[in-house]
Amino acid sequence: xxxxSEEVLLVVKKVRQKKQDGTLYLMAERIAWxxxxxxxxxxxxxxxxxxxxxISPDGKAKIQLQLVLHTGESTTFHFANENxxxxxxxxxxxxxxxLLPKFKKKANKELEEKxxxxxxxxxxxxxxxxxxxxxxxxxxxxxxxxxxxxxVNHSTSNNKQEVGISAAFLAxxxxxxxxCNGLRYNLTSDIIESIFRTYPxxxxxxxxxVPHNLTEKEFWTRFFQSHYFHRDxxxxxxQDLFSECAKQDEKGLKSMVGQGVKNPLVDLQSLxxxxxxxxxxxxxxxxxxxSNRTVKENSxxxxxxxxxxxxxxxxxxxxxxxxxxxxxxxxxxYFPVGAIExxxxxxxxxxxxxxxxxxxxxxxxxxPVPIQTQHYTTSQDIINSVILVQHEMANYKPCxxxxxxxxxASSAIVALSPGGVLMxxxxxxxxxxxxxSEVQSELKHLYTAAGELLRHFWSCFPVNTPFxxxxxxxxxxxxxxxxxxxxxxxxxxxxxxKT
Amino acid sequence: xxxxxxxxxxxxVVDVNPIWWGxxxxxxxxFTLSKCLDSVMVMGNSHLVMxxxxxxxxxxxxxxxxxxxxxxKHWKAGxxxxxxxxxxxxDGKYEVLAVTNDQISEEVxxxxxxxxxxxxxxxxxxxGSLAKALCSGQEMKSRILVIxxxxxxxxxxxxxxxxxxxxxxxxxxxxxxxLATDSGLLQQACDITGGLYLKIPQKSALAQxxxxxxxxxxxxxxxxxxxxxxxxxxxxxxxxxxxxxEIGYVCSVCLSIFCNFSPxxxxxxxxxxIPLPQMVKPKKKKLKPAT
Lengths: 499, 291
Prior knowledge:
By secondary structure, chain A is an alpha+beta fold. In chain A, 47% of the residues lie in helices and 10% in strands. In chain A, helix 14 (437-459) packs antiparallel against helix 15. Chain B is 32% helix and 16% strand. Chain B has helices at residues 18-27, 33-50, 95-113, 126-136, 157-169, 184-193, 206-214, 218-221, and strands spanning 8-15, 54-61, 66-70, 141-148, 173-178, 197-199, 236-237, 244-245, 249-250, 257-258. In chain B, helix 2 (33-50) runs parallel beside helix 7, helix 4 runs parallel beside helix 5 (157-169) and helix 5 runs parallel beside helix 6 (184-193). Chain B: One of its GO terms (molecular function) is zinc ion binding.
């Protein structure tokens, strides 16, 4: 019977299955049916096993629900309650529709993975057909190594690129007039996420206040109303939710400026406006006292400060992975290390190397010409030969009209024509032109299958567990024998075809 | 048709080893060095005539030096052999060819005249000639044809291989026409640079072979039916016996090749330890207590 902890979600009475009356129970993780009057379930299927459900069309007299499992089996339930059959069936169907997707993912993922791999790699697919379908290797063994290999690849490909933050996200909010003196701000979840990533202070405030003190709507209303958000962020002393944020931002800005930019290629400190003379550029002395500043200058500098801060926060948010970040990251990002360091100019590491000590280095210069017994020429022979040639060449005059006789020439032409003495090697066809391509491809498949089996064989070494030993002596023997028989069968079949 | 302004250089390296040719004259008087040079000249002339922009160079590979027969440095215009009844310029030949032939014959005569007999220098300096040939063909599209007579010299192996790889890098094709014994080094050269290797069965028909097989350049060869490439023996020779081996032992320190295993490499004196195969211990069966 059902486990006591299982939650029953729906009970439908008068449901027939295989011409028997009974009751259908939909539980948290499975669907089950028990015949009338009996205590136990005869049919029970986990939602994970169910591939899909089908219903009989509306016009039909019989109101049925069919469950198709992954294995291909199907179970049909006939709702036989005179009054409420249709409603019952629909209720069951709706519940199943909600439940099935939750369980589907877990079971299918592996299967999908396998299917994907088979589809992507035709060689693998062919191997699968040759080995598993013809029952040389069992499917689990085939997938045993492959899935682990691919799970590594998969995890890296899952880290999709994170979408960055648009610098203009605040401006994009673009308030619309409500018609009567109000403003509408359209906040999408993207914008909210951007605000949280860029201004962690605001995120903190949100976490503190919502949903305990304020609703989300109120929070954002206050956000937009506060001077924190407004252009001229002059602290008016009002106890605003966000005045703390403003103070934190000031602090952050000050520390950023304090750290400076660590870029050896650029010296920001020495950049300043230098006026050539009167009338060229600005005056040399910067105003240092705050009291001289006009209101306008103050607000200008405030805007510029906010602007810089905002840009810095946006950039930093892109660099930061989790939680708070250090302003260090910004500096490091800007210059490539290779631009300022040269390996050759640095101190030598002083790695001790062992020098090669060759005793008979002349061996290398001798080519692969085996030492044959040379024709022994006496020095008298040498002298005679040289004198003969000298004699001959002393009176050398080119006689180009009698270089060779026509018989000689024609015999040479015969030797060079196809079929001649020198052209024999060319008539040997390459073996891949003589064998038909389908035989070649079948042979290739067999070869790859044999390679796969060998891979299983070699992966068993070194044999340090009894399981491996067993696998080697028992299982693999069989596999190799089957493979060999297959190959033999193919060979005889091919030979028969030829004759 | 090759484009008008493309200069194509053919460098012919002729093996004029006087010792071999002297012996050859005794073996086969109908094919001597003169005939060989005549055939080379015919081919050179043909090459020059094929295209106005074709260039020719001929190097004689002697056992004492490698000498450019053409173009010659010492040529002076008025120095044609005046004694002859048939002067080269009188038979109506294309001037360039006449001058070429005269230069070649003059240079070869001088070269042979200054040959000194030295017992220990009997090998043709082929590697050096090839190196000179490579240097001369730097600025233009060039190819090298080697006409080989004497046997290979094993001492020139390193230089030879360097020359071959340099030619390959510069896309210079090396062809070989071998008169007597097969040359493994030239087979490798032709295989590596993409040239043609041919050992001719009849020396007297040398001119015909040169014109048929070696006159067309690399581009035109794809459209002709020519002798197929030979199978090259790339086996290495072991350092101990100089036998050509297919499977051997290589020292991991100095890369010298041996045909048999020895615990110490004789070239670099490194000692090697090969672990003995593990003895498989027989399983001890537990004796069941007798009940």
